[in-house]
């Protein structure tokens, strides 16, 4: 069985044909979804049994196994880092799928007394998960509110070509001194500091004057702080949640909370914790 490009969808499949199909699909690192009536047994750090019910079994491409009931977002049973997954028809004529984890030793056995649907697909997801703002949105907020960088700061260029790269923001401070600003949406590392330093040196080589260099991020690694101090560069810590609030307030970003809001209804605070934090 070749890796699946188009999803293979089987309705009311012949159970006898499923063990070989599922084994090959897992071997090719496809996602496998089985919908039907099943019971579940687990033994490992504890022991549990779940009687028959209509459920969704999902075997992900990394071997993670999840069993979902018709309601609720959490799986009723799950197993990460599965070492072995086997499928066969048991003595009762049911499709059995056994997932074994080596360390710690855990075994999950799912037996389908009825199989309604099987879906086999090769999925691809390379997208980055971002909290609040991505780097481009972060920059738009700071360019539109330069006082957040420091009082009296004035933006001259949004993205300035320096050497082989582009600094995020070029501006001048209240004393008229040139300032190179580099942004990071995640914890700034030593490499981020060296990137900023490269822009500072390129500016100095081109214009004959050393600019101030400021690295802006929500947090900084210890090695980044040490390197900033050693290279005589500056840093500013920003709150991405506050930048998101400003983006919504100034119309740079629309809050999902606005959708479905009744006219005149007040917005709940965006400072609430989300379930993703």
From TrEMBL:
PANTHER family: ENDONUCLEASE NUCS. This is Endonuclease NucS. It is an enzyme of class 3 (hydrolase). Residues 135-241 form the Endonuclease NucS C-terminal domain. Pfam families: NucS_C, NucS_N. The keyword ATP-binding does not apply. InterPro entries: Endonuclease_NucS, NucS_C, NucS_N, NucS_N_sf, tRNA_endonuc-like_dom_sf. Belongs to the NucS endonuclease family. Its EC number is 3.1.-.-. The keyword Hydrolase applies. Cleaves both 3' and 5' ssDNA extremities of branched DNA structures. Residues 30-126 form the Endonuclease NucS N-terminal PH-like domain. It is found in: Cytoplasm. Keywords: Cytoplasm, DNA-binding, Endonuclease, Hydrolase, Nuclease. One of its GO terms (cellular component) is cytoplasm. The gene is nucS. Transmembrane segments: none annotated. GO terms for molecular function: DNA binding; single-stranded DNA endodeoxyribonuclease activity. It comes from the Archaea.
């Amino acid at each position: 069985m070749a890796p699946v490009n188009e999803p293979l969808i089987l309705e009311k499949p012949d159970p006898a044909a499923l063990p070989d199909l599922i084994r090959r699909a897992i071997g090719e690192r496809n996602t496998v979804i089985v919908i039907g009536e099943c019971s579940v047994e687990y033994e490992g750090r504890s022991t549990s049994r779940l009687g028959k019910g209509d459920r969704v079994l999902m075997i992900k491409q990394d071997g993670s196994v999840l069993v979902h009931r018709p309601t609720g977002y959490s799986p009723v049973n799950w197993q990460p880092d599965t070492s072995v997954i086997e499928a066969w028809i048991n003595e009762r004529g049911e499709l059995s799928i056994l997932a074994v984890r080596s360390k710690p030793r855990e075994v999950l056995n799912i037996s389908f007394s009825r199989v309604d649907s099987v879906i086999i697909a090769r999925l691809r997801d390379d997208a980055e998960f971002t909290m609040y703002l991505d780097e481009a949105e972060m920059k738009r907020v700071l360019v539109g509110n330069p006082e957040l960088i420091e009082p009296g700061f004035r933006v001259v260029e949004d993205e300035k070509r320096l050497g082989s790269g582009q600094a995020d923001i070029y501006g001048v401070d209240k004393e008229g001194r040139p300032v190179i600003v580099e942004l990071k949406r995640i914890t700034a590392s030593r490499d981020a500091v060296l990137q900023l330093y490269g822009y500072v040196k390129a500016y100095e080589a081109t214009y004959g004057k050393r600019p101030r260099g400021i690295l802006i991020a929500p947090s900084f690694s210890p090695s980044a702080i040490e390197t900033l101090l050693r290279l005589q560069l500056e840093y500013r810590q920003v709150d991405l949640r506050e930048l998101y609030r400003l983006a919504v307030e100034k119309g740079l970003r629309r809050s999902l909370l606005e959708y479905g809001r009744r006219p005149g209804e007040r917005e709940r605070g965006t400072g609430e914790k989300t379930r993703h934090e």
